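re: ur question from yesterday

yeah so i grabbed the chain u mentioned. its 558 aa long if i counted rite. heres the sequnce exactly as i have it in my notes:
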Amino acid sequence: MAYKTDIEIAQECELLPITAVAETAGISPDDIEQYGKYKAKVSTSIMERDDIPNGKLVLVTAITPTPAGEGKTTTTIGLSDGLRRIGKKVTVALREPSLGPVFGVKGGAAGGGYAQVVPMEDINLHFTGDFHAIGAANNLLAAMIDNHIQQGNALGIDPRRITWRRCVDMNDRQLRFIVDGLGGKANGTPREDGFDITVATEIMAVFCLSESISDLKARLSRMIVAYTYDGKPVTAGDLKAVGAMTALLRDAIKPNLVQTLEGTPAFVHGGPFANIAHGCNSVIATRTALKLGDYTVTEAGFGADLGAEKFLDIKCRAAGLVPDAVVIVATIRALKMHGGLAKTELATEDLAALERGIPNLLRHVSNIKNVYRLPCVVAVNRFPTDTDAEIDFIIKKCGELGVNAVLSTVWENGGAGGEALAREVVRLCEEERGDFSFSYELDASIEEKIEAVVRRVYGGSGVSIMPAAKKQIDELTKLGFGGLPVCIAKTQYSFSDDPTKLGAPEGFTVTVKNVKVSAGAGFIVVLTGDILTMPGLPKSPAAERIDVDDNGRITGLF
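ran it thru and got these structure tokens back, copy pasting raw so excuse formatting
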């Protein structure tokens, strides 16, 4: 059977005017700024209204990702449409896609099949320009650092200890490590430099955790960009860069309103990577969505050990949020890969491989239930090659743990394929009460917080902190940053820091190579394994297959 591509499905959909979507959500015409017919910015004043109670918050996360696919965003969107079909007032809150993965290998972040947010071409490309504004603010600050040094260096910045990097929202390995300022005295001070991808920058994290313009300015001001010759931190506030950066971000900070294929209001705003940053959409978008729906469905990037851990330990802590229910997405195909099958072998029924792979799912379930103490359901995202025996096996295994597993067919059937999942989510929200707790407390030391995540969430036996990282931890503690939460950057492909360790490995240690503070975002970044903050393109990038015809119609975009 030939299936239509995501872009073909999206382009055949008859979109509602964004004014009609806003009306569905209960947004006043005075509170939207239209970006064409199908996109709008929404006033931040909505989230501040005390006369409107917050709806229920549903977090969608997933098992450890594999090349076989899990469909977390697709499930998030399909669940939202399913909730709406059973009579609930619903909003969905998602991240914006990065151009790097769009033109690389991963694809966009607008869902798939008949569970998408639209207009998907706009969302996956320039959208409303938020990422360009974030990149411009980041690079303005970089320019002001080097200009300060060029103009006499009154702050005494040590050019060897500049920690702020330039950025571009593209996968470009050539820019990871560069030397700039060449060409003589008039062209700057020669130094080592480099680029991060925009979604890995601290400004992206600050953008997504800020609650207002004033909070944004305060966070930007605290960002450490360099150290002086005598080891004192230099901030963006010291460089007097904050006002201009905020001016660039003034419009971007307003959440973006679009719609699902079935017309459900969707807020798509912000997009930090979850294997590098905290991997959640903006606090402002989430809070706005909560004011406008009885149920708000949101997601966190990659598996529950990355996105959900950071959503719960960082975002919820910072914003005072508590999910009412958690959905853990799994696929038969991915679990068979965790059981040792190659990608080419996944179309054949194999209960033995499934049994070997299911501990990965069960560990994620256990973390949500036993570490964070939240009610959860497993959504089995069905692929055409899955057999009934395999589906029944997953449902039975989850049932033995006291967790319901529900079949989801939203990719093929849209909201109708998410109705059963929607009913279980409603039951969890109405009948079960969590006793939410974090995986660590803030008064623990930086080392103890890292150790807590590795042992309690990853299932490891401990951490190995390299001497350079130990020195960085000691310095950050002396500077007063020891009470911040930790944001651990590691591979998304394993509970460990080794991407080849699939399933639910045990007895491993996580190697901490580098530790730095994101003082504006309000967390300590812990780099493990071989994690990179600037991805590269694959041998055959998706960009090779994207085109535009004479009528401006885009093809090849998934």
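noticed a couple things. The first strand starts at residue 32 and ends at 34. also DSSP finds 18 helices and 25 strands in the chain.
anyway ttyl
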